C-alpha cells in the first residue's frame, strides 16, 4: 500500500505517519510538506533511515509536483492546512491558498489519476454550538477565516464526489492533543510556560468549551475509515471529552505541581466560538471505532512526553518564551 500524506511534518500528520508505520511496517509513505508554520522536521527524525518513508519538500498548490506524486500513490490523505485561528484573523490569505487552492490542486490530480482521497477537516466548520452536538448533516456556520476555508474545502470535495464520481471521504475531528503539537496551541503552550514558571494567558473567562481527543485515537480512526469507511461519505471523530479551557489549564498545573497564580486572563479574541461538539455515533455504529484514551490518561502521557523531550520543544519555541 502506497500512502501520499500531505502536511506530514505537522502535529497530526507526523503522528499519523508514525502510527501507520508502526502498525503496518511494509506500507510505503511519501510525505510532502512545505515546512510552513506548524511544520517541524524534528517530528519524524526517527524515520531518516526507514526505506519505506520518503520526505519531499513542496507545496500542495504545486500542480506539477502534486500530479506526479498522486499518480504514484494508492491513497492521498490531506493533513496540509493553515490551522491557527488567531493567524487566520490577522491574515486570511495563506489560509485561502493552502486550505482551498491546495485542496483544489489535489482534487484535480485525484480526478485525473482516479485515486482515493481522504480530506482531514475540523469540527470548527459547524461553528459555535449551544447544547447540541453536530452530526454529519449539521449545517455549516464557520466563524473564523480558518473555519471558513475548511468548510469551503469540504464543499469543493463533495462537488468532486458528486460531479466527477471521485472516491473521497471527509473526516472531521474535535480538538487534538498529544506529542509533537505546535507550541502556539493551548495544551503545549501551557506545559511550556508552566515548566518555565511563566504566566499562562487564557482568553476571556476561560469558559470556552472544546471536545478533546488524544491524537493517536484520531490517527486510529482515520485508518479505520480508510479500511472500512464508505467512499463518498463523511465521518465525525470525537471522544466526548467536553472541557473548558480554564479547567484544562488547571489540570495541567495540578499534574505538574505548579501554582494556579500562573494563570493570566487576557482580552478575548474576535469571534471566539464558545463551544464545539461533534456527534460521532456514525463511526461508532458503522465502523465499530471507539477511542482508547480517556482524557486524564492522555493528558498525563502528553505532559510526560514534553518533559522528556525538552530538546524538541526548546528548539521549536526558540526564543519565544525565554
* Overall average pLDDT: 94
Terminus-to-terminus distance = 45 Å
Radius of gyration: 19 Å
Number of strands: 12
Helix content: 40-55%
Structural class: alpha/beta
Write the layout of secondary structure elements.
Layout: E1 2-6, H1 11-23, E2 28-33, E3 53-57, H2 63-71, E4 75-78, H3 85-90, H4 93-113, E5 116-122, H5 145-164, E6 168-173, E7 175-177, H6 186-195, E8 200-203, E9 209-214, H7 215-228, E10 234-237, E11 242-244, H8 245-256, E12 263-266, H9 281-287, H10 295-308, H11 310-317
Helix pairs in contact: 1-7, 2-4, 4-5, 6-8
Report on the architecture of this protein.
- The chain is 42% helix and 18% strand.
- It has helices spanning 11-23, 63-71, 85-90, 93-113, 145-164, 186-195, 215-228, 245-256, 281-287, 295-308, 310-317, and strands at 2-6, 28-33, 53-57, 75-78, 116-122, 168-173, 175-177, 200-203, 209-214, 234-237, 242-244, 263-266.
- The longest helix has 21 residues, at 93-113.
- Helix 5 links the parallel strand 5 and strand 6.
- The chain contains eleven helices and twelve strands.
- With 322 residues, the chain is an alpha/beta fold.
- Helix 1 packs across helix 7 (215-228), helix 4 runs parallel beside helix 5 and helix 6 runs parallel beside helix 8 (245-256).
- Strands 3-2-1-4-5-6-10 form a seven-stranded parallel sheet, sandwiched between helices. Strands 7-9-11 form a three-stranded mixed sheet. Strands 8-12 form a two-stranded parallel ribbon.
- The termini are far apart.
Amino acid at each position: 500500500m502506497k500512502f501520499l500524506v500531505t502536511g506530514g511534518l505537522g502535529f497530526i500528520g507526523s503522528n499519523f505517519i508514525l502510527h501507520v508505520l508502526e502498525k503496518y511496517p511494509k506500507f510505503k509513505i511519501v510525505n510532502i510538506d512545505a515546512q510552513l508554520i506548524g511544520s517541524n522536521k524534528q517530528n519524524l527524525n526517527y524515520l531518516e533511515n526507514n526505506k519505506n518513508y520518503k520526505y519531499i519538500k513542496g507545496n500542495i498548490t504545486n500542480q506539477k509536483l502534486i500530479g506526479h506524486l498522486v499518480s504514484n500513490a494508492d491513497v492521498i490523505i490531506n493533513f496540509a492546512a493553515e490551522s491557527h485561528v488567531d493567524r487566520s484573523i490577522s491574515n486570511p490569505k495563506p489560509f485561502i491558498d493552502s486550505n482551498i487552492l491546495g485542496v483544489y490542486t489535489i482534487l484535480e490530480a485525484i480526478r485525473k489519476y482516479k485515486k482515493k482521497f481522504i480530506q482531514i477537516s475540523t469540527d470548527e466548520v459547524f461553528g459555535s454550538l449551544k447544547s447540541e452536538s453536530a452530526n454529519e448533516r449539521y449545517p455549516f456556520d464557520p466563524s473564523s477565516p480558518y473555519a471558513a476555508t475548511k468548510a469551503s474545502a469540504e464543499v469543493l470535495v463533495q462537488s468532486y464526489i458528486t460531479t466527477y464520481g471521485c472516491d473521497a471521504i471527509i473526516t472531521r475531528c474535535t480538538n487534538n492533543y498529544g506529542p509533537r503539537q505546535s507550541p502556539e496551541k493551548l495544551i503545549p503552550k501551557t506545559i511550556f510556560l508552566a515548566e518555565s514558571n511563566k504566566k499562562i494567558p487564557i482568553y476571556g473567562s476561560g469558559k470556552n468549551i472544546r471536545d478533546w481527543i488524544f491524537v493517536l485515537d484520531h490517527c486510529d480512526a482515520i485508518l479505520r475509515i480508510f479500511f472500512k469507511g464508505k467512499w463518498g461519505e463523511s465521518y465525525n471523530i470525537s471522544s466526548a471529552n467536553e472541557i473548558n479551557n480554564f479547567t484544562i489549564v488547571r489540570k495541567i498545573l495540578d499534574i505538574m505541581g505548579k501554582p494556579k497564580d500562573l494563570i493570566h486572563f487576557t482580552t478575548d479574541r474576535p469571534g471566539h466560538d464558545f463551544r464545539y461538539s461533534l456527534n460521532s455515533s456514525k463511526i461508532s455504529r458503522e465502523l465499530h471505532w471507539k477511542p482508547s484514551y480517556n482524557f486524564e490518561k492522555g493528558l498525563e502521557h502528553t505532559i510526560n512526553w514534553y518533559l522528556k523531550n525538552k530538546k524538541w520543544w526548546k528548539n521549536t519555541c526558540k526564543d519565544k518564551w525565554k
